[in-house]
Amino acid sequence: MKNLGIILIAVVLFGVASCSSNRFNTTRIQNLDFNQYKTYGWLPPIDSLSKDYFNNDIAKHNIMTTANQEIERRGLRYSKENPDILFRYVTIVNNKKRLVHARPYYGYGGPWGWYQPWGFYGYNYHPFVVGEQRLRYGHIILEAIDTKTKSVIWQARGTSEVNAPEKAINNLPKIVEGVMKKYPLQIK
Questions:
Q1: Is 18 part of a structural domain of the chain?
Q2: Whole-number Å distance between alpha carbons of 34 and 157
Q3: Beta carbons of 85 and 145 less than 8 angstroms apart
Q4: Residue 35 located in a structural domain
Q5: Contact (CB, 8 A) for 53 and 138
Q6: CATH number at residue 95
Q7: Element housing 169 (H / E)
């Protein structure tokens, strides 16, 4: 019985962890030593053609404050004059559609009189499409540009579902932290 409780807790924790709506992706120039960059600066954000959810002072403050903290935690110093690396960000909000599936209820009484709605006892079931669900996703893309070569050397994107603009703006520090975890230098 004790093992069953442990298994149940593990399944619940795995389910909660897999429900996280934040996703992070990154790309970089391979075999580049990021330790050579000691100072950083900022380029103006790139304008997006999407909804203006993140085009306000609060959103910009949340992004810049968190990004500066995370960059400095990795050992870089801010320099207005002649930085080694420049960062910029772009925010995008777009609409997506997702298919909604249903599962048929197959089963029979079985030897113990249970109804088997998930296709046990050899029943084969296939989900079928019953409709579409519209979703809105917010993306923050951070880029690092080498000032000598003028080329992008690192890029990372954080994506989160947007249900309400206010919640999305308040969630920006968490997204930026997740994006910066993808930066090639670890926290010092």
A1: no
A2: 19
A3: yes
A4: yes
A5: yes
A6: 3.30.160
A7: helix 165-180
